[in-house]
Fold:
Amino acid sequence: MAKFLLLVALGLLVGWWIAKRYRARSDAGDDKTPRGSEDMVRCALCGVHLPRSESLVTRGLYYCSAEHQRQHSPTD
Ligand SMILES: [Zn+2]
Structure:
């Protein structure tokens, strides 16, 4: 019985340690990737502004969606 309780205590300790590590890592990740200072670009078709990372680029032109990218791209 004492061994069983020891195993339970050990399991709880390991679980707590993993949860603590996981939380610390996700907090650090949030600090390293600040948002809000990103370049804004304009869709070449509809003119909507969106973050550069969310835009689609074709020949130096930015698009808000794959549909606008396809509609605006010259057929070749
Ligand atoms: Zn668009």
Notes: The two ends are 77 Å apart (CA to CA). The CA atoms of residues 23 and 29 lie 10 Å apart. The mean pLDDT is 85.
